[in-house]
Amino acid sequence: MSVLVVGSLALDDIETPAEKRTGVLGGSAVYFSAAASLLDHVRMVGVVGDDFPEHALADLEKKGVDTRGVMKRPGRTFHWSGRYHENPNDRDTLETVLGVFAEFEPQLPAEYADSEMVFLANIDPGLQLKVLDMMDSPGFVALDTMNYWIEGKPGALEKVLERVDTLLINDSEAELLSRRIGLPAAAREIRSMGPKTVVIKLGKHGALVFREDDLFYAPGLPMDDVKDPTGAGDSFAGGFVAALSLLGYKDNDNYRRAAIIGSAAASFTIQGFGVEALMAADRDDLAGRAERFVDLSRIPMPILPVK
Ligand code: AMP
């Protein structure tokens, strides 16, 4: 199968307590594709400016990412700059320069329209709707969004949510979108808006998957060598959607497996700046990392002696 992603391709400036880097390859579609390509073919839709390095798309192509859907336009590539605090869950956005992304009108190469799996990364919900309208009839649609769109484009977001199978969203944004306090209540309310599955991202603490009567927790793998947390959420999404593509998106158990694969993919991303560590990993590395989660939460039974 093939997974289609629409989102940003970016050149980021990233500052952590230990290091500062400029012009780092990033963007939601890049992190997603780097992770998803460990398990499946990826079709990428986005836009870059004339400052975008040629080799970046060639490197993604080598990983099995079809980049024919990435348009090149005169101007600057989308640029985001952020600073992390000691706690990697705390970051300040210092600057966002839309550049060629400001005029972005997604166009799908004709051969992308039959994609079975779709990930609509965090972009204007109006554009997310347009992408769905250009597709034949995808079997599975996942979507990411943020407070900017929840507050700024609630109507379009509501419409697109009706057509989505899985929403990936962080904890505070889940409460904002649902106007509910507490994650179970927020997930219940969001599921009444359309998505059957709600994945609530908890930053370095992992993610909760709410699906039908099932609640599953995929922890973040505790790592000693965190270099740059940027893109962990999009990498989680890439691992998650590609795993569902490989295993099947109808079986409830596969959502648990997919969440572990998502967490494993994110654990590579944070070990390097931008996508460098994730791009250096292969499918066996991902499978090996995923197995570490089994021991992480295996409980010897019985938990208490039987009375
Ligand atoms: P994450 O750490 O998962 O939130 O992803 C960070 C990536 O998202 C960075 O590479 C940014 O370039 C990109 N990004 C940040 N803000 C936006 C935005 N408003 N729209 C699209 N992409 C963004």
Compact summary:
The chain is α/β, with parallel strands linked by helices. Helices cover 37% and strands 25% of the residues. It has a single domain, classed as Ribokinase (UDP-N-acetylmuramoyl-L-alanine:D-glutamate ligase, 3-Layer(aba) Sandwich).
Show the helix and strand layout.
Layout: E1 2-6, E2 10-15, E3 20-26, H1 28-36, E4 41-48, H2 54-62, E5 65-72, E6 78-84, E7 91-97, E8 117-120, H3 125-134, E9 140-144, H4 147-152, H5 154-161, E10 166-170, H6 171-178, H7 183-192, E11 197-201, E12 207-211, E13 214-218, H8 232-247, H9 252-269, H10 276-280, H11 283-296
Parallel strand pairs: 1-4, 1-8, 2-6, 4-5, 8-9, 9-10, 10-11
Antiparallel strand pairs: 2-3, 6-7, 11-12, 12-13
Helix pairs in contact: 1-8, 3-5, 6-7, 8-9, 9-11
This protein binds adenosine monophosphate.
Residues 8, 10, 12, 26-28, 80, 96, 122, 230-234 line the site of adenosine monophosphate.
